[in-house]
Amino acid sequence: MITRLLAESRTWAFVGLADNPAKTVHDQARRLQQRGKRIIPVHPDERPVLGERAYASLAEIPEDVRIDVVGVYRRSPFAGAVIDEAIARGAGAVWLPLDVIDEAAAERALAAGLDVVMDRCPAVEWARRH
């Protein structure tokens, strides 16, 4: 599944992505953008990041934009709410990076038909598979 998500996904919404190059989420989004993925920053500040328009929430992203993967770059206690938003928005998958774990929310996502990757780094997984 990880190989498929990295190879076939086109649009990643990064929840928690602000214009701060020192943050891990910024680095991950930049790396995927450099590999041809469209990134959509999702942050309450709504400031453009990496040349892309930002949205305050997943719900504010236009309905005609298909979200293949939602990167959940929030601490574990807040991940469940983001995953519920991803389910409601009709995303194809949720990706929780290293040390972000919410088993109950992951089960809800799986039950709703989303793919779930948890406690994994997209850059590390990309390097392993390419």
UniProtKB/TrEMBL annotation:
It comes from the Bacteria. It holds the Pfam family CoA_binding_2. This is CoA-binding domain-containing protein. Transmembrane segments: none annotated. It comes from Thermomonospora echinospora. Residues 5-100 form the CoA-binding domain.
